[in-house]
């Protein structure tokens, strides 16, 4: 633990926007107001790029009502980026920090952002510049290691569960025509978001009927057998697939091979899996299949944001400031689950370098043996994060009227 340090605080947001990342920003700003060691609160526009270009804004001059409103505003209010710094740019970052007397640096983001915060802190230490660098977790993918879950996940999980439940009712109604619906959900190497579609089920035959995630290989022949089996039983099928699903060879089944479709960190753009599988279903099973691909809209829906997620996103931002003022550096704030019923979560700390080099995928115990569904332990893990039950729907009892014409 280092001694308290007086100076300006700089906060930035990076990676994909979410429904709750601004709640973390509000937590940072409002907690920053409470500490006399923090002489100024600056925001970098478009993540670390804003630091490179010294494109900073004075967050102390924002109205209190505006800052409070961030708690219920989606997307990234400061703007975001996916920028991988070069060695020369790290030197530039330190020069800007020195010129602006930045002594507390908080980066809200995922694995790559944690790596950036770690390297900036390292460079400052090597040059004898006193800086507190901390990470504030954010990712809808829920793949940050060393934290029970990531702010952003609970809200996208609620969105996906709601959307899949509605799509299930749509397909059930029109199943005499459109018999198979495949929904492609975001996720690079981990299936957490796709798995959350299981929270849509309110009765045994409710959608989704099949779930496929990258942690288990998708074998086309078994997939087609699964689809046929559900169709024979129900007359329609709703399937959720993660865009990063892999085949038996461990390679992603479908992704863009064009260099332009890779970000600065080399991550390929996923997409096209649902279309591929629809063609398999139509060609081999002779069943009409359609697909939905929600895209980035699923990650920023404030209408379906989880209240638990919003509160926890605020909390990690708030705690990052408290730790920075107390002298902590080179750490990310974590969420620590203490109980499921009642749900209770506190915070902890983990080294930034550990988070940057790790990726949390779904444990084997959360997936069934067939690799086409989740298990009860996953539902127990994820259900508290979406902030309460989904709205209640009803079903007609459909009391039949006697047939008079015999047809």
Please tell me about this protein's structure.
With 407 residues, the chain is of the alpha/beta class. It has two domains: 198 residues, 3-Layer(aba) Sandwich (Rossmann fold), CATH 3.40.50; 166 residues, Phosphofructokinase domain (Rossmann fold), CATH 3.40.50.460. The chain has twelve helices and eleven strands. The strands form two sheets. A seven-stranded mixed sheet has the order 3-2-1-4-5-10-11, with helices on both faces. A four-stranded parallel sheet has the order 7-8-6-9, with helices on both faces. Helix 8 links the parallel strand 7 and strand 8. The longest helix is centred in the middle third of the chain and has 22 residues. The protein is elongated.
Instruction: Return the structural class.
Output: alpha/beta
C-alpha geometry: elongated
Major beta sheet summary? 7 strands, mixed
Low-pLDDT stretches:
256-260
SS element count, helices: 12
Topology of this structure?
Elements (H helix, E strand, L loop, with lengths): L6 E7 L7 H12 L5 E7 L3 H5 L3 E3 L5 H6 L17 H13 L2 E8 L1 H16 L5 E6 L15 H22 L5 E6 L6 H4 L14 E3 L7 H15 L2 E6 L30 H13 L3 E4 L14 H20 L4 E10 L2 E9 H5 L19 H7 L25
Parallel strand pairs: 1-2, 1-4, 4-5, 5-10, 6-8, 6-9, 7-8
Antiparallel strand pairs: 2-3, 10-11
Overview features:
407 residues; alpha/beta; Rossmann fold; 2 domains; seven-stranded mixed β-sheet; 12 helices; elongated
Structure summarized in a few sentences:
The chain is an alpha/beta fold and 407 residues long.
């Amino acid at each position: 633990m280092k001694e308290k340090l007086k100076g300006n605080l700089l906060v930035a947001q990076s990676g994909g926007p979410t429904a709750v990342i601004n709640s973390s920003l509000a937590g940072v700003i409002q907690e920053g107001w409470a500490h006399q060691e923090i002489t100024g609160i600056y925001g970098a526009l478009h993540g670390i790029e804003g630091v490179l270009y010294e494109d900073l804004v004075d967050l102390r001059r924002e109205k209190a009502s505006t800052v409070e409103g961030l708690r219920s505003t989606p997307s990234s209010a400061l703007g975001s980026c996916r920028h991988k710094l070069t060695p020369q740019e790290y030197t530039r970052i330190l020069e800007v920090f020195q010129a602006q007397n930045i002594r507390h640096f908080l980066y809200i983001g995922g694995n790559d952002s944690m790596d950036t915060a770690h390297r900036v802190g390292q460079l400052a230490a090597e040059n004898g510049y006193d800086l507190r660098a901390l990470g504030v977790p954010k990712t809808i993918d829920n793949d940050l290691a060393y934290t029970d879950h990531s702010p952003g996940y609970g809200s996208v999980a609620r969105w996906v569960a709601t959307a899949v439940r509605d799509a299930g009712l749509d397909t059930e109604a029109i199943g005499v025509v459109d018999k198979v619906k495949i929904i492609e959900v975001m996720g690079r190497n981990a299936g957490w978001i796709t798995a959350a579609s299981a929270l849509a089920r309110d009765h045994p035959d409710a959608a989704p009927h099949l779930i496929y995630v990258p942690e288990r290989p998708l074998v086309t022949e078994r997939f087609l057998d699964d689809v046929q089996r559900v169709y024979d039983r129900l007359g329609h099928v709703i399937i959720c697939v993660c865009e990063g699903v892999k085949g038996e060879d461990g390679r992603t089944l479908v992704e863009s091979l064009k260099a332009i479709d890779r970000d600065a960190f080399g991550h390929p753009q996923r997409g096209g899996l649902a279309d591929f599988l629809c063609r398999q279903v139509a060609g081999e099973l002779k069943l009409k299949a359609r697909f939905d691909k929600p895209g980035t809209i699923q990650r920023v829906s404030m209408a379906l944001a989880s209240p638990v997620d919003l509160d926890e996103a605020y909390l990690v931002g708030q705690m990052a400031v408290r730790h920075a003022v107390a002298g902590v550096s080179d750490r990310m704030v974590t969420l620590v689950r203490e109980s499921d019923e009642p749900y209770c979560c506190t915070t902890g700390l983990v080294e930034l370098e550990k988070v940057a080099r790790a990726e949390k995928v779904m444990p084997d115990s959360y997936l069934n043996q067939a690799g086409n569904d989740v298990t009860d332990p996953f539902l127990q893990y994820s259900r508290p994060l979406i902030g309460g039950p989904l709205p209640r729907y009803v079903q007609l009892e459909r009391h039949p009227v006697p047939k008079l014409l015999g047809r």
